[in-house]
Amino acid sequence: MTAKVSFDEVEVGTELPPQEFPVTRATLVQYAGASGDFNPIHWNERFAREVGLPDVIAHGMFTMAEAVRVVTDWTGDPGAVVEYGVRFTKPVVVPDDDAGALIRVTAKVAAKLDDRRVRVDLTATSEGQKVLGMSRAVVRLA
Hints:
Layout: E1 15-23, H1 25-35, H2 45-50, H3 60-75, E2 81-88, E3 101-112, E4 117-126, E5 129-140
Antiparallel strand pairs: 1-3, 2-5, 3-4, 4-5
């Protein structure tokens, strides 16, 4: 696969389509099974509260992966992402109800680089709080 977005047609400031990602306790159980990360802060409310958290929280790597979907959906090719990093700033708290939590992600092209690459800066929030900081992806475009 190759990116479907042309480097020549992208400008600094180009906004990617924003997305929202729901997260429920069931989602966390599925991710724990796939990742092997069964830390009780991700499924046991009593334990999460005992260690000072407000409730069960989403896995950081899950949050990071959901956020970059905005970029991979935009390019049409997950392999176009050549670099990606974040700082975890706040946890995504996932209540034990049918609604769960919602991760909202926006992104825009922050810089055009050499070799048909762009840097995309992402903003991920949940409950009005920024959950990822310094969230940046470098993407090679067509």
